Every structure is written in C-alpha cells, then in structure tokens.
Amino acid sequence: MKTTTTRRRAAAVVAGLSMIGALAxxxxxxDSGVTTTVTKTVTEGAEAADDGxxxxxxxxxxxxxxxNGADGDGSIASVVFDGDVVTDRFxxxxxRADNDSDDNDNEFEIDLRGENRGDKVxxxxxxxxxxxxxxxxxxxDDVEWESEDHHEREATVDVDGDTYTVSGEVEIDDDHxxxxxxxxxxxxxxxx
Length: 192
Prior knowledge:
192 residues; alpha+beta
C-alpha cells in the first residue's frame, strides 16, 4: 500500500511539472502589454550630466508620429498653479504611453513628482487626432486637487513635437473641508 501511495505522489509531481512546462511553452512572448518607465531627476538651472550613454533607445524615430509621444524621461518647462509658479517644487518627470490592449485607447500619461512627499502632478491625455485631457490633478501642500468631467472638456492641450502644454481647472477633493474650491493648473513639459 505504501508503494502505491509513493507512486501516485511521484506521478502527480511529474504530471504537475509537465503541465507547467507545457504552459510555459505555449505562453505568448509578446511584450505589447508591458509598460517601461524611465525616470529622470532634473534640477532647475542644472544640465543633465553626460555619462557617455546613448539616448538612441528612448529617442523617437524620424518616422514616428509626434502625437504618439515617447515613453521615457523628460524635463519640466513650467508648472503654474492658481497663478503661482511652482516649477521648482517638482523634480522628476515620467512620460509613458498606455499600452493596454484591452481598451484600445491612445492614452498618454505624464507624471511629475516633487521632493516633498506627496507633491505630484498627474496628467492623462488622449492623443487621438484632436488631443484632449482625460484627467488632471495636483497634490500640493497635502491638498488634493483634481479635474471633474466638465473641467476636462474645457481644458486645453497643445502638442508641439515632444512638448506638451496642458491648461485646465481643478478643484479640491471632496474629502477636504474646502471641497469645490477651484484653481487653474498650467503645465508645460518635454517628453523626449
């Protein structure tokens, strides 16, 4: 009886390993759903150090459509919030295309992060023939501001090569005591 149990266990282990091997052999190696994000830290007035590495991997090709944008790093030209220039509060830019094949959209995301914990700007764009804002938000001084649908319809997007200029209205999150207060947010970044 003990030999039968041992053989059954061995057979179950072999069958399980065979299943895993078969599934791995049939897997799809297509990377179309993978998003690669490159982060670059920039300091106002400072040039990026040349480490001798080639930037050709992240640079768009001559044949690429400017409205498609390129995944990778970028630089901040300006961030103006409610009339105040707050560009120096943000040091990191991430630009990436939404590669979800399930919703078949042309979303392009731009995220700015600050050195102070919680300071961030998030911009979601649809880069179809006539680019528009799908989402706009800023977290600054522990207050969350975000766009509502009607703000997004009125927001403007200008795409000039790798430079994106977005302007729109945001309002304080519903969970805050000053909920509903609005402010303008204007951001210009280069995603190259």
